[in-house]
């Protein structure tokens, strides 16, 4: 397998997005996996719920891990223990870097000729398959949560989605196959050109999303992201399903090597295990028991019980791996809630960070192994990251007296109580309790309002109907590296399609201009400065208050010899897991 990292070619000032720097051709094994990795064996995976395998809807770690086995993208991130390498996209189905013309407005991608679908005739993957994958993202009634990245970049994508959303579900497949997105041009069987709304520097990262995967014609016969899709999945990845039960009579799924896949056409996936089994329907406790007994090798989902994670970390158990990147927990300040009269004043909002004891909050999340305090929204692997806090306090413990004084001088009278919106997760419960204790030191009572699932999303993203003053938000980047868009655009863009952090009603034309400037930056230095300036604007306004970065613990069996977490996936790439018995 060759992983020839190529520099992007540019025909204009817009740049072509990041790709790995040029290197001499070397075997992928040497580039992405420690020498100890060896092929063979059966990788046994456990899960609470089996993902559908539909790449268009894969926005959670377990879902992305499965899509890594059975799908491919134009560009992908390698499985490498070094985040500096695993956060830079490389050509996958694409034969090389995109050709960028018309001052950065057109990205032309040529496909590898050897890539095939797992069909009886091993049909070639074509540009039409790429276009079909993008068109499916807006199929009603539940469109892809990742469609926002394409609506924000590709000409005509939003309009296509609007028209498709108005189409009866029964007619959606026919509409997808007979209609086109204006900005997705089929140049030939092996070439597709993307026309952009404006030059941006991260479009290669957008094309590395699972949602950019080609999809075969056969997929249109089944509802997206459904059990039917899974049962009839046509693979173009290194594995294919050989057992996917239609009922509960035979639990579990089995994957074997895909004969239509060739290592020479894939410079990303190692395909180390000979076979993979997935057993679902388990609780986190049951999964952990199987992993520790050696009856399973890795888990797709579910949180490692906090107490057990702490014990394993204290013992320095080599089976425990902590994600080097994570999700940022933040407080969104509601500008239309019960205390809006006070919180709309910047000077009052800017007192709130001093109410927060980030050190105690991180301790409540498991301590430094699993949570790190932060005063910003960008993480260390991201372009523009700098260790800065516009509201520093002694040792990060907060300044209750400063917070109390500011909140006592509001025009409408002292602020002595605020409402906090959270989910019912264990993480949010721990954070809410730590916040309640910290705010109490400043003389402010926090009243917690718990909403679950869709009710939380509805409450958090309706600024005009706010019944809360503060909302706990979890910001998980869709990729890392040049990833400022994944943090700030869902926060700032009123027209964003798809999930977003809690929306407090913050709108700042200057921040929007800074976002555009950061996305158009033509050099790493300029991009870093632009993202840093935008972060200073948003965080400095105290419209969003960063709290901590939560690093997920992952546990694998003693039989696993290599387990490199891919940041954009959120867990290890199963195809790159090496087993001691292999």
From TrEMBL:
<dbReference type="InterPro" id="IPR000914">
    <property type="entry name" value="SBP_5_dom"/>
</dbReference>
<dbReference type="InterPro" id="IPR039424">
    <property type="entry name" value="SBP_5"/>
</dbReference>
<dbReference type="GO" id="GO:1904680">
    <property type="term" value="F:peptide transmembrane transporter activity"/>
</dbReference>
<feature type="compositionally biased region" description="Low complexity">
    <location>
        <begin position="20"/>
        <end position="35"/>
    </location>
</feature>
<feature type="region of interest" description="Disordered">
    <location>
        <begin position="9"/>
        <end position="38"/>
    </location>
</feature>
<feature type="domain" description="Solute-binding protein family 5">
    <location>
        <begin position="89"/>
        <end position="476"/>
    </location>
</feature>
<protein>
    <submittedName>
        <fullName>ABC-type transport system, membrane component</fullName>
    </submittedName>
</protein>
<dbReference type="GO" id="GO:0015833">
    <property type="term" value="P:peptide transport"/>
</dbReference>
<dbReference type="Pfam" id="PF00496">
    <property type="entry name" value="SBP_bac_5"/>
</dbReference>
